[in-house]
Write a structure and sequence with these properties.
3-stranded antiparallel beta sheet; 192 residues; 3-stranded mixed beta sheet; alpha+beta; single chain
Length: 192
């Protein structure tokens, strides 16, 4: 046993036993006394080892909790940034609905004042639709499609014989998606 190892053993050992074989001179000891473990009571050493093990496990748990917190925070920030304009778009959709209602008032007579006024509204409506598409706001295609509660809200039902049950017959209010999220469902009439 080397001098360093023997000194380390003596430091960890609380008993008064000392080696008398002369291995202090730096040569490998051949005596049995240096090859054996200390026979003193190691309960305090065992307690310290157990304490170190417990603290290491606690440290690993804390590191994992910090990593999980960072991951959740990053996901939350990413989601917030992705849908940052959602509130503004939701407030803007009723304005778009009103423009569509105004456009529906147009008749085939293009010479009267109302038609000239409505042609300006149509241009504004087209610009708004293009702007919304630029920001990934899309109208949900509904009319003639099967009813889907994720995208539709049935406000009325009707019985039309030549159409399949569960088909959307009429759209009362258009639904919209913002990126991959439904921000407003379509209000529809469904065939029974």
């Amino acid at each position: 046993m080397s001098k360093k190892k023997k000194k380390d053993l003596e430091k960890s050992c609380q008993c008064d036993e000392t080696c008398t074989c002369g291995c202090n001179e730096g040569n490998e000891c051949q005596s049995e006394c240096c090859k054996e473990e200390c026979k003193c009571d190691n309960t305090e050493l065992d307690k310290l080892k157990e304490s170190v093990k417990t603290l290491q496990e606690a440290l690993l748990r804390e590191k994992a909790e910090v990593q999980n917190y960072k991951r959740r925070k990053d996901e939350e920030i990413s989601k917030t940034l992705k849908y940052a304009n959602e509130d503004m778009i939701l407030e803007f959709l009723p304005i778009l609905d009103n423009l569509e209602r105004a456009i529906k008032l147009d008749d085939n007579n293009l010479d009267d004042e109302v038609s000239k006024f409505l042609s300006g509204i149509k241009m504004v409506y087209t610009q708004i639709k293009n702007m919304l598409e630029k920001y990934e706001v899309k109208e949900i295609d509904t009319l003639g499609k099967p009813f889907n509660p994720t995208y539709h809200q049935a406000v009325l039902t009707d019985k039309v014989d030549h159409k399949e049950p569960g088909i959307v017959l009429e759209v009362y209010q258009k639904g919209y998606m913002y990126k991959d999220k439904v921000i407003r469902v379509s209000m529809v009439k469904v065939n029974e």
